[in-house]
Amino acid sequence: MTFEPLASDFFGYSAQLSDQEKESIMALRSYLETEVKPLVNGLWERAEFPHQIVKKLAELDVYRFGWESTKPFENSAVFRGFVALELARIDASVATHVGVHNGLAMGSVNVAGSDEQRAEWLPKMASGEIVGAFGLTEPDSGSDSAQGLRTVATRDGDDWILNGSKRWIGNATFSDITIIWAKSAEDGQVKGFIVKTDTPGYTATKIEGKQSLRIVQNADITLENVRVPESMRLQNANSFRDTASVLRLTRAEVAWAAVGNSIGAYEAALRYTKQRVQFGKPIASHQLVQDLLVKSLGNITSSLGMVVQVSRMLDEGVQRDEHSALAKAFATARMRETVAWCREALGGNGIVLEYDVARHFADAEALYSYEGTREMNTLIVGRTITGFAAFV
Fold first, then answer.
1. What pLDDT does residue 71 have?
2. To which CATH superfamily is domain 13-126 assigned?
């Protein structure tokens, strides 16, 4: 299958991918466009998740790409970013599902697990045999998770007893395991636990009424005396710094997903405006419509340049928190502008699911906020450039 750069990759950043990576991207794109895209508007309207895609995404090795112990060939962080972009270009919810399972859940095991835990869990997760979720955010603790975590883990012999609650946990209505982060009653440090979701005392309840990322199955989780063996504690998670190490890796991929969501809206707007006739000619021939499209492409191109460089830095081992924070803050802010301009280009039809832009427009709001709000990411960067922490 011959690789075709996206027209929205205006400066040709995908040329940096290897031939094997390009083949993988094209196989993924073909599946998403033919099998997933025709379903997403209906799924979004019904707030349903297409469980059948888990097996196919596993067959395409989407869950394998991130982790050395399971990936089939050497691939770059830039490649992994383009995977996130392709997913979000079709649907941001599908990209979020993969980000939670592959990035946050598998990432936690890979970064903070022991060799034995990686060997046990990563192959099963990469194959789609089990699906993971990531439980950090709580009803009263989001941006202040480093200090405000209220879920408690109490040591009881060879077990730990977990009590608390989590909120906004993606995949959690159907996950087989959830990575639960809790404060130890012994030393007050944050620790991670691999919790099987059929454990007594573990309850996940779907959050209803969402108007963004409706396909993602977010849940409220209640933990009532959930008993977890020491062998299921992530052996290298000893403080919130270890949690942050996972978030650092995934935050940049959220920025990539923001670019993909922008591209999805832009492609839909470009297609529509070239076909929609008013005053005797396609509205794409009008100056003001072209202005909206070009501004959108400019946002996409500048954001893509930033995320490519951040991923290069990750490959080189020099990416720090402030780099991924700036990429996430910038790309999601530009996405918010872009989807609004694309919706504007469609006029009234911009709010109808049939034309695709409305879904990208609504989903942008969740991407803008999760895995670090713009404000929190701004303060991470601000601390670096000024030397002053201004979080409180």
1. 44
2. Acyl-CoA dehydrogenase/oxidase, N-terminal domain (1.10.540.10)
Our measurement of the distance from residue 18's CA atom to the centroid of its chain's CA atoms, rounded to an integer in Å, reads 24
Q: Is the pTM value of this prediction over 0.70?
A: yes
Which pairs count as long-range contacts for 357-362, CB under 8 Å and 24+ apart, including other chains?
Answer: 357/265, 357/268, 357/269, 357/272, 359/40, 359/41, 359/44, 359/91, 360/92, 360/261, 360/262, 360/264, 360/265, 360/268, 361/265, 362/211, 362/212, 362/214
Fold classification of 240-386 (topology level):
Butyryl-CoA Dehydrogenase, subunit A; domain 3 (1.20.140)
d(CA 353, CA 152): 43
Distance of CA 60 to the CA centre of its chain: 18
Q: Tens digits of per-residue pLDDT, 52-80?
A: 999 999 999 999 866 554 444 457 889 99
Write the CA distances from 334 to 194, 256, 296, 349, 392, integer angstroms. 36, 12, 9, 22, 26
Low-confidence residues of the chain: pLDDT under 70: 65-74, 142-147
CATH code for residues 132-232: 2.40.110.10
